[in-house]
Structures are given as C-alpha cells and as structure tokens.
Amino acid sequence: MTKNSFDIVGFDLDGTLVDSSGDLTAAVNDTLASVGRAPLTIAQVKTMVGGGAKHMLTQGLEATGGIEADAFRALYKRMLAYYGDHLSVHTRPFPGAVAALDALAERGVRVAVCTNKFESFATRLLTDLRLIDRFACIIGGDTLGPGLSKPDRAPIDEMIRRSGGGRAAFVDSIYDIMAARNAGIPGIAVSFGFLLEPVEKMGADAVIDSFDELIPTLDRLAA
Q1: Residue 139 pairs with which residues in a beta bridge?
Q2: How far apart are CA 204 and CA 55, in angstroms?
Q3: Alpha-carbon distance 219 to 216, whole Å?
Q4: DSSP readout, 56-116?
Q5: % helix, strand, coil for the chain, step of 5
Q6: Could you give the CA distance from residue 25 to residue 49 in angstroms, rounded to a whole number?
Q7: Which of these, 28, 78, 151, 203, has the minimum number of CB atoms within 10 Å of its CB?
Q8: What is the pLDDT along the chain (223 residues), one digit of tens a residue?
Q9: Catalytic residues, which ones?
Q10: Residues sharing a CB contact under 8 Å with residue 157, sequence separation 6 or more, in sequence order
Q11: 31, 67, 115 from 27: Cα distances, Å
Q12: What is the C-alpha to C-alpha distance for residues 12 and 202, in angstroms, rounded to an integer?
C-alpha cells in the first residue's frame, strides 16, 4: 500500500478486530441461568452480536422462551454487570490483527474503532488487551447518544472527524457495512467474523478471509 493511500482505517470491534464470542456468550448465559433457561452455544450467540448489548440479550431471551417486558430491565442490568467484570477473560484479537495494525502504523495510517459496543466497554477491553494506545479514537454505540449507532452514518463520520479527517475505509461486519455505505466510504467485510448472512451478500466493496489480505485489499481499493 502506498503511503497514505488511505489516511484512516476504521475497525469494528466484536467479530472483526477481536473474537469476543466466549465472553459475550458467558454474559448471556449467566443471565439466562438466572431465570432458569438453558445455555446457548457460542455459535448461537455469534448471530446475535452487532446491534448492541440490548439487542443481543433480547435475541437470547427470545431464543429460549421470551420474557415479559417489565422483567427485561433487571436482566439487562445483570448482563451488563457480569460482562463488565468479565469482558477480557477469553477475548483476543483475531489472528493477524495486531500485525495488520503494525503495518498500517508503519505507513502513517491512523486507525480507529467504531463499534456498537458501549464506549466504556470498548475502551476497557482494548486497554486490557494493551491495544488502546494504537487508536486515534474509540466511537461506541452510546458515544453520540440515543439513536445514533450503526448502521447510521453518524458514528463513521464522527470517527473520521476525531481521527483528523481524510480518506477513510472501514473493516467491518453486517451493521458496519451498511454504515460505511451510508457514509460513502469503502467497506471491507471479514469472512471470519460474526455474520448474519453469507458474506457475499453483504454488499461490501471487498471481502478478506484473513488479516494478511488487508493491506493488499486497501491498496487495490485506493487505486
């Protein structure tokens, strides 16, 4: 990739930059166990990730029998508390992710995270993983306030602004592909992430099967 072909490369977090499926599943299953439900598998929970914690728990409860509306808030608070205490037990960067961040840094490309995860959770997780200092900014699902999370373009726009502006691309999953498209920047989908549908149907500008393919893919999109 030629220097500064992209000024900024943004990343989604769960299922894109890191595999957080073990810790997210544990948080959902702790909550389900509190109301006598059977646990879900990691494969099941992966399909529920992307729209934020509330969406994930709603899907988990619906998959195991539903829940009365007036009982949801307490369960949601329980799940957040559990996850906040266990968010980096099993979570690790996907293979090749750190090397890709290194390669981008060597080229002077600024990197950022834009996720539907709460900003505080994203910041703590990246701190635990000793990655936080690599990023120009962290935009969470609550950073801009209610109703302004992906696939709305606003978080992507804010990520670009806080990263200093310039030509940007985004590495992502389904919610973020739509956000990148809405923001008018290239979206690169990861086939190894948490997918809601076959990756070929996501409408991405490119698909990578590993982070080893990221730099050549950015090079091609920038040409």
Answers
A1: 114
A2: 23
A3: 5
A4: HHHHHHHHTT---HHHHHHHHHHHHHHHHHSTTSS-EEPTTHHHHHHHHHHTT-EEEEE-S
A5: 45, 15, 40
A6: 10
A7: 203
A8: 454 489 999 999 999 999 999 999 999 999 999 999 999 999 999 888 877 788 899 999 999 988 888 899 999 999 999 999 999 999 999 999 999 999 999 999 999 999 989 999 999 999 999 999 999 999 999 999 987 887 889 999 999 999 999 999 999 876 567 788 888 899 999 988 776 666 666 678 999 999 999 999 999 999 8
A9: 12
A10: 183
A11: 6, 17, 18
A12: 15
Helix (H) or strand (E) holding 19: strand 18-19
- The first and second tokens of residue 176, run together, are 């973020």
Residue given tokens 């060597």 in the structure block: 106
Buried b (16+ CB within 10 A) or exposed e, 52-62: bbebbbbbbbe
Tell me phi and psi for residue 109, to 5 degrees.
Answer: -85, 130
CB atoms inside a 10 Å sphere around CB 64: 18
Instruction: Read off the DSSP letter of residue 149.
Output: -
